[in-house]
Amino acid sequence: MSKPRGAETTTAIGIDLGTTYSCVAAWFHEHNRVEIIPNEQGNKITPSCVAWDGTRLLVGESAKNQITRNPNNTLFDVKRLMGNRFRDIRVQEDIKSWPFKVTEGNERKPMIVFEHDSHENRSYSPEEISSMILKNLKEAAEAYLGKKVTDAVITVPAYFSDKQRQATKDAGALAGLNVMRLISEPTSAAIAYGLDKSADLYCPKDKNVFVFDMGGGTFDVSLLNISKAGTISVKAVGGDTHLGGEDFDREMVKYCAQEFKDKVNKDVSENARAMMRLKVACEKAKRDLSSTTETSIEVDSLFEGTDFSKKMSRARFEKLNGRFFEKCIEHVENCLRDANIHKNDVDDVVIVGGSTRIPKVQQMLIEFFDGKRLCKSINADEAVAYGAAVLAEKLSGSRNVVVQNLVLEDVTPLSLGIWASVGGMSLDVQDMSVVIPRNTPIPVTRDHMYVTNHDNQTCMKIKVYQGESKKTENNIFLDKFTLDGIPPSPAGKQAIKVCFSIDANGILNVSAQVVSTGKKRSKAIASAAVNRLIHLMKKKLS
Ligand code: ADP
Ligand code: MG
What we know:
Layout: E1 9-16, E2 21-28, E3 33-36, E4 46-47, E5 50-52, E6 57-59, H1 61-65, E7 74-75, H2 89-97, E8 101-104, E9 110-113, E10 123-124, H3 126-145, E11 151-156, H4 162-174, E12 178-184, H5 185-197, E13 207-214, E14 219-226, E15 231-240, H6 245-264, H7 272-288, E16 294-303, E17 306-313, H8 314-320, H9 322-339, E18 348-352, H10 359-368, E19 374-375, H11 383-395, H12 401-405, E20 407-411, E21 416-420, E22 433-436, E23 441-442, E24 444-451, E25 460-466, E26 476-483, E27 495-502, E28 508-514, E29 520-524, H13 530-541
Parallel strand pairs: 1-11, 11-12, 13-18, 15-20, 18-19
Antiparallel strand pairs: 1-2, 2-3, 2-4, 5-6, 5-7, 8-9, 9-10, 13-14, 14-15, 16-17, 20-23, 21-22, 21-25, 24-27, 25-26, 27-28, 28-29
Helix pairs in contact: 3-4, 5-11, 6-7
């Protein structure tokens, strides 16, 4: 692989940390454009895989290549665990389908265990595993750029919660990266799209752009407005952090395992190696079905010496996953409703992510937008990293005018609010009092006044939640803290100001203040102790 000679390159990179594939890019000053950085094998996307082969830690292609031989110690889909709790229903569902082991750690965190290791401390948090992938990409960039890389912009699904964002930031810090900014994946793709259009003329008019991003693990939609001057403002986001190609593969595997059982009366589901071989075959068949209408799934000696062979039609594949596809269109509708924009007012529909190659997905989108042509001019696999590299360049003080002029206005994907032990807002035990509604432009600071509930109440418990349900129990619990030192007074006489502030990364800080005395408590919500994590990881790897 030849390195661009004498290129004056920035050390800030853009990273698309995907569920299935990751990608890294940087702005090359010499060429005045972004380049996607190839990995050691020369490929521009790297599997988000980490494995332990008994002696070595493998990351990326080398990890993925040995997955069928070493299924219990090859980790994938780890992004689905980021910032989530072990007991979340969806986490539990994922764990059932994975060949590797996940246990419950401190603070209800899921911990991933490398199985055939006798050391009991060889279990890793999702942040630690993700940091290994980030480090691998950082090193690929350093090798290609010929200099050290310290700063990065990392992308996250638009629909990631505060906790998931915080976990991503922590993973970056563990990889030795200064995370300059987290940016939503569809927003990043919109930058790539905006710059692509600017090649001839810098956006002749304001445009409403709908980005549909469907990858392996997550599904994101976003409605953005791109102005003539280069301002990209997000109007609304939506999606599902648990919907993508992995789910389609899983449905196919379930179907094939049932077929095998019906035919030869053997249950493959308990055999991790057989299931992994079946998954690899199903994923390949799924890809084939994007360009052909029929294929076959073949696995020699799948289980106890019996071969598996099954024809699979595109129609069958679509039927198996029909409910997922329908869900996607519901998210599209909701996002447009939130943005208050009619589908006829959408100028361009941009598709990114590997799963948008599925003909049924494209067809449903075209039908929804009444026959509109989908915009495929940007690379579905690279656009997200591309946009992140542009932002990284901007944040490092670019000399390029187009990059300089770029302004981003993002929104918060989920409503943020509290439950508090105070009155005045008629808060029932379970009621969520929203402080910042979803799709509010960020950065933002909002406050809300509450009053004491009881006579002589001296403290107030504040629980912070994120989500759309009126009942806090159905939302994501983020954190809690207590404000004390409230002067004893009759109920309703002391006011407490609760202030929420979201920074440009979409990360929340909450404070509460007794108005009469000025006493204040602040909390950076869900911020994990990164230094402690770094220390732990060093210990484990040594
Ligand atoms: P992520 O961002 O979640 O890592 P990607 O955007 O890289 O995901 O997309 C990966 C997903 O796209 C995988 O599930 C893969 O099977 C799927 N995929 C890639 N190419 C095709 C194709 N031609 N047809 C259908 N699915 C595809
Ligand atoms: Mg992606």
